[in-house]
Design goal:
two-stranded antiparallel sheet; 6 strands; 6 helices; alpha/beta
Length: 174
């Protein structure tokens, strides 16, 4: 049981080098993301004013975001992520409560060909830190209300309340 077949360097190499199966999964995942965004864009083109998202605001009033509005908001966020040099194959953390902001964030990340990692706000900071480190996340999308949950010294944080709250409040709901 003490006989080691591989050296430490060989084990490290095998753990860090993607194999053909992992590369296939990665390309299949990228193709699926591309298809999802293409289907979303088809919905935007076909039904720009139709309801894409319904939610209740802080006053208990139902609000509606159209496909066109959702597309515009996610494009704006994708542009902000591009300014932070987020590209395809990057992992972006999303640390938000269930809200329209979450939907906008997921679409923005997928539009860039990146992956999103959901970071549950109910988890302790130590667990979130581990997940961020383990997934090699360099950028996290969140709101200032979740400030205490994140290891701010290790990631770039994009505060969505600065970007989306203003845009959502200016959306015209017919």
């Amino acid at each position: 049981s003490d006989l080691q077949m591989l050296s430490g360097e060989e084990i490290e190499y095998l753990l860090r080098t993607p194999n053909e199966h992992q590369q296939f999964e990665s390309s299949a995942s990228a193709k699926q993301q591309s298809n999802d965004i293409a289907r979303f864009k088809q919905s935007v083109a076909a039904y720009p004013q139709h309801s894409a998202c319904r939610y209740y605001d802080g006053d208990g009033q139902q609000q509606i975001i159209s496909y066109q509005q959702l597309d515009s908001l996610s494009d704006a966020l994708a542009e902000s992520l591009t300014d932070l040099e987020v590209t395809n194959n990057d992992a972006v953390g999303i640390c938000l409560s269930r809200s329209p902001q979450t939907l906008v964030a997921i679409l923005a990340v997928l539009k860039l060909g990146a992956s999103y990692v959901p970071l549950d706000i109910a988890l302790p900071k130590a667990r979130l830190s581990f997940m961020i480190d383990d997934a090699q996340i360099e950028t996290v999308l969140t709101t200032s209300g979740h400030l205490s949950l994140l290891p701010l010294d290790t990631v770039e944080v994009l505060w969505l309340d600065d970007i989306l709250t203003t845009d959502l409040s200016q959306v015209s709901f017919d």
